[in-house]
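Sample A.
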Amino acid sequence: MTDTCTTRAIRCFSGHAVRRCLERGITALHVEQALEQGVLVAEGEGTGTWARGRLRVVVSRDGMVITAWRTPRRNPKRRIQKSQSRKRREKRRFHVREAR
């Protein structure tokens, strides 16, 4: 008997998965597509995490969807700009307090 989580058929959604999918704008169709067309990216104790694009879906071995989320968009240039902007803002705040 193999201990891998290769379940691609959805049996049901957990209450947690339903709440998170509604909060995050993820439809049942998105989840189905992730399981049908995605790849298994991680396995835990009785669970598997499937990925399709930015969508991640955790499914138990018996087919219950446990949760789903989208990974953040990655833009290194924007991340650097935000970091520099935050540093400038903190620097200005520090100098204003010191001048008073």
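Sample B.
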Amino acid sequence: MFSIKKMALGVSIFITLGGTVFISSATGVIAAEESQPWDELYPQASSTTPVHDDRVARIEIKKIPNDKTEQQTVLACTANHLGSGLWITAKHCLTSTEEKREIIQSDGDRATIKKVHFAEEGVDLAILETDNPAISSDFFTLPEENPNSSDVLTLIGFAAVHSYASEAQVSVTEGVQDNYVLWQKYKQSFKTVSVTDSRTCSGDSGGAVYSRNKIVGIHSAGPLNKECEGKQGSVMLHTAIFPSREWIERIIHHLDKDLEHSNGKNIAPFSSMSSTNLSLSM
């Protein structure tokens, strides 16, 4: 019989943004103050206020070790529903095609991820197709423009140590541009700071940055402090949705056609997701 073991994934690379040391891990990109030793970083959540939102879920990764004596369960990242079983997350959350991945909501509903679409190189976005489109009735819609400096947005994510989602209010400090992770360019990303002392932690990567029902960004990087305390003014990095909207709409259109062919009938339309084509700044 297999036993289940929850674990966090390890640290891999460094970047710097505005004087903060950021660290990329398979569970997400996390960060620490420069005075904190990098080998003392652990995935913890700073917010303990539950938010029940049917539009978000956790990505859970299950991998059978080579000796097949133990099954490891890794609580990885956050995913956000775009409708009819399509979810969007951060590309860096998905590290192996040989792992079994599932979408799990706070009420226990789950679906297996059957296909992954990766955005172009340097864009930290991925679209997930699941085998159960019915697990979530609510979904985010796509934006008509990029976020602007001083916009106040909401970030929601499933931190790795919690069984529920939590939120942080963030303010945009820099508009959409390219940022660098060592030699690797992170395209079409923007920076925010926390408006209150609620901020992101490991496991929140892939979480939606949104205004009302429009998802304007996906969380890519955020700070982690040793005591897991909140901090107002904490810097975070997110990947913008709008520059990749045409790519997302192509996936939606293709899925719509597949479902129409397999079901012999039309499916419910995606709200605000199939308007005129938009030029991409890629």
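B remarks: DSSP finds one helix and 16 strands in the chain. Residues 1-46, 264-282 have pLDDT under 50 and may be disordered.
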